[in-house]
Every structure is written in C-alpha cells, then in structure tokens.
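We examine the record.

___
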Amino acid sequence: MCQYCGCDQIGPIGALMDDHFEIRNLCGHIRRHVEAGERAEALEYLRELKRFFSVHNVVEEAGLYLSMTRFEEYEDMAGTLYDEHDALDALIDDALALADAGRIGDIDFEPLLKEFVVLFEHINHEDNGLFPASAVALDDEDWARCERLRDEAVARLDRPLWSEQTHASSAAKRAHATTHTHADGTTHTH
C-alpha cells in the first residue's frame, strides 16, 4: 500500500486502501483453503470477498473511475480497471452459483486463483497510480459522491463489513498486525 504521498488521508481513498488490505487477506485465505482441499471453507471466504466487492467496486466504478474519466489520460486505465472487475466478478459468481447448486466438487478454483494475481496487480496500479493521481485531480464533489456511494452500498448489506465496524486507520491495523503459524503449518496475519 502506498503511504508516500498522503492520499490515504482522503476519506474515500483511505477506505478503498483499507479494503485492499482486507481483500488481499481474503484472497490469501481462499488460496490456502483451496490448496488444502478445504472447498467449503474457501467458499466462505469467497462469499465474504464478494461482499467486500459489493461495496468496494461501487465506490471505484461509479465514483472514482467515473470521475477520473473526465481526464483523457485516465480513460484507458479506467476502462481496463472496469474490465478487470468484471472478469473477477464473473469467476466469483460462477463459483458461487455452482456452490449454491450443491455442486462444490465441480468448481474449478484454478482460474480464480490465477485472477488473484491480476487482482494484486490491479490493486498496485490503483494504490500507486490512480489513487495518488485522483488525490490531485478530483474535487470535494467527487469525494462526496464516493462517500455517498459507499454509505449506500454498506446500507444494503446484511451486516457491516469489518472495515465499516471500526474507526481504526489502516496504518493502525497494520501496526498491530501479528503473523503466526498454527500447528497445521498455516501461517497468516491478523
């Protein structure tokens, strides 16, 4: 996550960066459970990832990306980022549709795990490119729209996202994160 320019101090960007932190963690859980053959557990985390995207993608797509397309130099980047959202959303929806149909064994997780590599590059492009640029380019009206979109998306959820339940900054969360290894060899960070 970028921390060199201070753009994370702008509310909507800070919230999106917090989401990125959680999204990476969720992807890690999914990968570990898939690799361990624990499909049901992987699907639980995949459902949570979909919940995150139901808020995160709305803010980016209907807020940030849309605002940045006012600037010709960001039109292609925004288009690519939209397409990457769509590709990942389709893979998630396909996997969950099979799970909901009781066909967990038919889910091919490999394309999804490969798409996580694209997702991490996507996050890097946003954190270190689009977000700092938007901090300079966008105005209060744009940020207010992003905040409104996030509030509306969160209100549609059955329960708040973890990041919506706390007021801790992403820096504070990372500062208090600990990495540990369980008896089964699984290592992760809280």
Summary: Residues 46 and 83 are 20 Å apart (CA to CA). DSSP finds six helices and two strands in the chain. The radius of gyration is 17 Å.
